[in-house]
């Protein structure tokens, strides 16, 4: 997990450099985001909060939102999106003492 996170960190730094921005949080969706230990490792190694969407079916929900918009139920995709109340779980970077304490 640490090796994959190191690769993620390299890729994120590349994107930040190319895009001229500094990431302030990482939003995760999908199956890999269900691993709490890995999410904490990412937060610690990247030193930014990791925000996990608490919905396993994000692709289906996104397709439904565009479908609602397409049939005229909503005037814009943004209006359709506003109808969905997502819940998030946060993983905050830990200090070394917090990591040791948790072991």
Automatic annotation (TrEMBL):
Q: What would you give as a GO molecular function for this chain, any one?
A: L-fuculokinase activity
What protein name applies here?
L-fuculokinase
Query: Record's family?
Result: Belongs to the FGGY kinase family.
* Lineage, top ranks: Bacteria, Pseudomonadati, Pseudomonadota, Gammaproteobacteria, Enterobacterales
Matching SUPFAM superfamilies: Actin-like ATPase domain (SSF53067)
Keyword check for Lipoprotein: no
The organism named in the record is: Salmonella enterica subsp. arizonae
InterPro entries, A to Z: ATPase_NBD (IPR043129), FGGY_C (IPR018485), FGGY_Carb_Kinase (IPR050406)
Instruction: Name the gene for this chain.
Output: fucK_1
Show where the Carbohydrate kinase FGGY C-terminal domain sits. 1-69
Keywords linked to the UniProt accession: Kinase, Transferase
């Amino acid at each position: 997990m640490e090796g994959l996170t190191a690769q993620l960190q390299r890729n994120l730094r590349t994107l930040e450099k190319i895009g001229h921005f500094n990431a302030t949080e990482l939003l995760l969706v999908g199956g890999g985001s269900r691993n709490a230990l890995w999410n904490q490792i990412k937060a610690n190694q990247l030193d930014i909060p990791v925000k996990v969407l608490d919905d396993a079916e994000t692709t289906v929900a996104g397709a439904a939102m565009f479908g609602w918009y397409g049939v005229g139920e909503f005037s814009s995709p943004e209006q359709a999106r506003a109808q969905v109340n997502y819940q998030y779980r946060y993983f905050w970077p830990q200090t070394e003492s917090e990591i040791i304490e948790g072991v």
